[in-house]
Design brief:
Layout: H1 3-24, H2 30-37, H3 41-69, H4 72-95, H5 100-115, H6 118-128, H7 131-160, H8 166-185, H9 198-243, H10 249-274, H11 281-299, H12 305-332, H13 336-365, H14 369-390, H15 406-414
């Protein structure tokens, strides 16, 4: 990487790091929030949902917006909105007795901001760097995302020692300087060519879904299910550690970080392997889902904290097989404008999975420990079967590799000047 690019790239790496804190940092303090505000389990889970649903909806459009007005023009305001949402939640918690409604509103605002951060940062990386440098840069960007996932429970637990609302304030403390740094320090290259009409985006998306809808649908289902289960299980595990095993503070954050660390390391290794063994993508996906299902079934029979923690680690392991495989298949399924839309839809589905997990598991927790684990295990196993039956790997190969559909090939021909695609990664960083 050229020396002149090091500082701008370091700033770019802060963007996915900040965004991934949006949900994961709150997981360790949710029991504290529940107690302080006298909430039900479902109400507590909605604090995650209020962030993820608007993020999932808005992410469908921010890629198009960034193509039209510029990447920095989206990222910096998005980070400010993200920080203001956090500050609003913190102020409500600090000064209002009945702060829950305003916290939910603030989380919606924060989710809207989150949609314009990490996905667009990866697109900007694709604009700035070329060929081999681009691959290295995007790999490091993913690493910063993984670092955020691992550190977020520890940061959440640590700031939660000050107050239950302190993690919300931390969002503003981190994101606002990042917004200023993005605006000031990152040079955005001027785009060549005409702006693509919105109808073209949706036309290309429709053509791709018509040709590959069943296989892409299997990817979308698997991604949504695995993230719903992961965040739901972490929500349950966080509550259990505090209420039953009296584990609090930083230790709790470190314990919750273990399955996330295992997921991140596994994702990295599986991603490396799949670069040269793409025929294993489908196998890795359904094997990972079956590992998650098996870990959940075993968890329903476990009462000891240590063994439950090991089972949670296997949930992280299975997720680490699934997510990079899906990322590769979805981003390879189309080219050009269609790729941006296909990956944006995938990113939205993943956000919706995260949104559903905590409240769903909160409701299940009210019906007993067995119910917490068995239905999600059945769902994971069913998703694995669906992937086995519905996903045709040949259709999801990159155009020109023997598997691309005509729509994708046409899009590639029309938009080949940028191998990274207009918002190629549209993708998920939650």
């Amino acid at each position: 990487m050229k020396s002149k690019n090091i500082l701008p790239f370091a700033v770019l790496c802060s963007v996915p790091f900040v965004m991934v804190l949006g949900n994961s940092m709150l997981i360790p303090v949710l029991p504290k929030i529940k107690s302080a505000l006298d909430l039900s389990q479902v109400q507590t889970g909605l604090i995650i949902t209020a962030f993820s649903v608007p993020a999932g909806l808005v992410i469908l459009f921010v890629g198009i917006l960034s193509d039209r007005i510029g990447r920095k023009e989206v990222i910096s305001p998005a980070l400010i909105i993200y920080g203001l949402g956090g500050a609003g939640a913190a102020l409500a918690g600090a000064f209002l007795e009945n702060s829950y409604p305003l916290i939910i509103v603030a989380r919606v605002v924060q989710g809207i901001g989150a949609a314009g951060t990490a996905p667009i940062a990866i697109a900007l990386t694709g604009d700035i760097f070329q060929s081999e440098e681009r691959s290295k840069a995007q790999g490091l960007l993913e690493a910063s995302n993984g670092l955020g996932k691992v550190l977020s429970p520890v940061l959440g637990a640590g700031s939660g020692l000050l107050s239950w609302w302190a993690p919300f304030a931390l969002y503003a403390v981190i994101s606002v300087p990042a917004a200023v740094a993005v605006w000031v320090l990152i040079p955005e290259p001027k785009k060549k060519g005409e702006k693509t009409a919105m109808r073209r985006y949706f036309r290309d998306l429709g053509e791709t879904l018509k040709a590959k809808g069943r296989s892409l649908g299997a990817c979308y289902v698997a991604g949504g299910v695995v993230l719903m289960i992961l965040f739901g299980v972490l929500f349950y595990f966080s509550d259990l550690l505090e209420s039953r095993f009296n584990v609090t503070g930083l230790l709790k954050g470190v314990i919750i970080a273990v399955p996330i660390l295992i997921m991140s390391v596994t994702s990295f290794l599986v991603g490396l392997f799949m670069q040269t063994h793409r025929n294993w993508l489908k196998v890795a996906t359904w094997v990972g889902l079956l590992v998650v299902a098996a870990a959940l079934l075993v968890s329903s029979l476990i009462t000891k904290a240590l063994w439950l923690g090991i089972a949670m680690a296997f949930v992280g392991l299975g997720s680490g097989f699934v997510l990079p495989s899906l990322d590769t298949m979805v981003t390879s399924a189309a080219s050009g404008q269609a790729r941006g839309m296909v990956t944006s839809v995938y990113g939205a589905v993943r956000f919706f999975g995260v949104a559903l997990g905590p409240p769903a598991f909160g409701w299940l927790m009210e019906h007993g420990r067995f119910v917490v684990f068995v239905p999600p295990a059945v769902l994971a196993a069913g998703s694995a079967i669906f992937v086995m039956l519905a996903l045709q790997l040949e259709l999801l190969k990159p155009p020109g590799a023997g598997g691309g559909d005509p729509a994708a090939k046409n899009a590639e021909a029309q938009s080949s000047s940028d191998p990274g695609g207009p918002h190629n990664s549209g993708g998920p960083h939650n």
